[in-house]
Each structure stands twice: as C-alpha cells, then as structure tokens.
TrEMBL record:
GO terms for molecular function: exonuclease activity. This is RecJ-like exonuclease. Keywords: Exonuclease, Hydrolase, Nuclease.
Amino acid sequence: MTEAKSRGWFSRTLERLTADDHQIDAEELRAEAASAGCEPVSMCRKGKVVTVTGRLKSVVYTPRETVPTLEAELFDGSGSVTLVWLGRRRIPGIEPGRTLTARGRFAAFDGKQVMYNPWYELGAG
C-alpha cells in the first residue's frame, strides 16, 4: 500500500524556488485545467469526446493538395494535442501563446494526438 506524503510549506516553497520555468508553467497550466473541469491531455483516450484547455505553443498553416489545414499545438501541462481545422487558412485569435479551451473527439494520426475541427473558446490571455 502506498501512502501519499503531504508536503509542508517549506518543502513546497523550496521546490518552487529551485524548479525551472517550464516546470512551473506546466504546473500552473495543470492547475488551471483542473479548476476549469477539463480532462488532462495525458489522460485522454482515442475515440472519446473530451474538453481540454491550455496554451497554444505553435500554429502552423499547412497547405495540402486537397484541402488547406490549420494546425495548432495545445499544451496543458500534462501533454500536447494537435488541433486541426480542415479547410481553414487562418482563424482570428488562434495564435501562439493564446489560452484556449477545445472540445471534440480525441484521435491519433501519425503517432500524434489530434482533434479535428474542434469546438473552441478563446481565453482572455
């Protein structure tokens, strides 16, 4: 039986002072996702309809032979998912650094976790 140890104020403060910026950012994003009631990306499974929230790390327009595609990488602190909008070259407000909540069916393509044409809501930041 494993018992979770509760950390004291001093150890939490010391850990926070010695952590790098990426760890702190990831921890804050995980906390925001949990408080928003969204699933962590690392816990999402293929085929399920999920709601995730996080920050856009990159946005890429990918011209394809048949249909233009806008791809954005959403990071929530636990993992990343690629949001794909088929038939779109640009969506106002979809830009790196923007906070976004997306809802759609979770899938996998070429070893990446993706959501196609998700419903989305832009955050204030």
